[in-house]
Design a protein that fits this description.
The protein is α+β, with helices and mostly antiparallel strands. It has a single domain, classed as Nuclear Transport Factor 2, Chain: A. Strands 1, 2, 3, 4, 5, 6 and 7 form a seven-stranded mixed β-sheet that branches.
Length: 152
């Protein structure tokens, strides 16, 4: 399997673990000194801290569906970079006035850096930018955000 295929599998494993809420599989995608930048808070550094944030965040979503769309990968030896577009459907624990579930729909982009350690590709950095968020409306009348600056 080519490096690009292995990296795509890494990205898909990450999203699959989100959908299944599988902490072990999700955490296995990160290098020990990784950086996770969600854009809405300061970047988190270190695998242990990243996993703790993810577990806490996921506890607020009875349902989370993260779907991988198109992407790019550039490999340079044991390092690589990539960009992946995702859609997310998130259900919140809170209910509306009628007792119905609430949630939101996002379209976003991950800008990644990867490192190959012990023959396995891992995330060394993930930078997330929300391109579209429906603000919980469910009808695509939400906020469109500018494309984030590309990382080096």
């Amino acid at each position: 399997m080519s490096d690009k295929e292995e990296i795509r599998n890494l990205v898909e494993k990450y999203a699959d673990a989100v959908c299944r809420r599988d902490e072990k599989d999700w955490s296995s995608t990160w290098s020990e000194d990784a950086i996770w930048d969600l854009g809405s808070m300061p970047p988190v550094k270190g695998k242990k801290e990243i996993v703790a944030l993810w577990v806490q965040a996921m506890s607020g979503f009875p349902f989370a569906g993260q779907l991988i769309q198109n992407g790019t990968v550039e490999v340079d030896g044991d390092k690589a970079s990539g960009r992946w577009y995702i859609t997310e459907h998130l259900q919140f624990a809170e209910k509306d006035e009628q007792g119905n579930p609430t949630g939101m729909f996002n379209i976003g982009v991950y800008q990644d850096k990867y490192i190959k350690e012990n023959g396995e590709w891992l995330f060394s950095e993930r930078h997330y930018g929300v391109l579209y968020n429906d603000g919980g409306s469910g009808n695509m009348s939400g906020t469109v955000n500018p494309y984030p600056d590309l990382i080096d």
